[in-house]
Specification:
The protein is of the alpha+beta class. It is built from six helices and three strands; from the N terminus they run H-H-H-H-E-H-E-E-H. The protein has a three-stranded antiparallel sheet. A hairpin with a 4-residue loop joins strand 2 and strand 3. The longest helix is centred in the middle third of the chain and has 36 residues. The protein is flat. It starts with a helix and ends in a 7-residue tail after the last helix.
Length: about 190
């Protein structure tokens, strides 16, 4: 089991090494420092809209850098722990490796979101299609799914508009505020 875990970590480490070139971590640290310097200025909040954008960008960058720093740290620490672990401890370490793989893949997929608006916020509109009561019920289920997904991502959701019928939801418009919300939701469309 230990050999398998070490092999999985080795593969992940190789992926991280090749991905690291494209992450531009040093440039992002410099940009975060610039944002933090701007935020320390006395007149920072004079322009509310710009201050909010800078604060949001700084928070997003800080989260990005912290995620990759914790991944890199785990990739360095786990092989030593696995090598010195007993068989009973290997099961616990397997959970750690599994958690790290999931975190790595989530962060790796987010690096693909480099479009002009991917970092921005999103507005999601849900409307009943054909199908009567079933469609209204399904629209309400979709709204709950989006709300739970956003909650899990730590995004803020403001319900801008909701129109109910006797049976379910006819339409809803949600404003979703959070890092990469537009990038992760832009592909959500269709008729059901």
């Amino acid at each position: 089991m230990q050999k398998e875990l070490l092999e999985r970590l080795k593969n992940m480490n190789e992926r991280f090494t090749s991905l690291k070139k494209n992450l531009n971590l040093d440039e992002k640290r410099i940009q975060l420092t610039k944002f933090q310097d701007q935020m320390q200025k006395i007149d920072f909040w004079n322009n509310q809209k710009q201050a909010q954008q800078i604060s949001q960008q700084a928070s997003s960058l800080e989260g990005f850098l912290n995620n990759w720093a914790s991944i890199q740290s785990a990739l360095l620490d786990l092989p030593e722990l696995i090598t010195g672990a007993s068989e009973s401890d290997a099961a616990l370490l397997e959970e750690e490796v599994l958690h790290l793989e999931k975190k790595f893949e989530e962060n790796e997929s987010e690096t693909l979101l480099s479009g002009e608006h991917d970092q921005g916020n999103a507005i999601v509109s849900l409307h009943v299609g054909n199908g009567g009561q079933d469609a209204e019920d399904f629209t309400q289920i979709l709204e709950r799914m989006y709300l739970r997904f956003c909650e899990g991502k730590g995004w803020k959701v403001q319900i801008l508009d909701e129109s109910f019928s006797d049976v379910g939801l006819k339409s809803a418009t949600l404003e979703i505020t959070g890092s990469l919300s537009y990038g992760l939701l832009k592909g959500e469309h269709g008729v059901h």
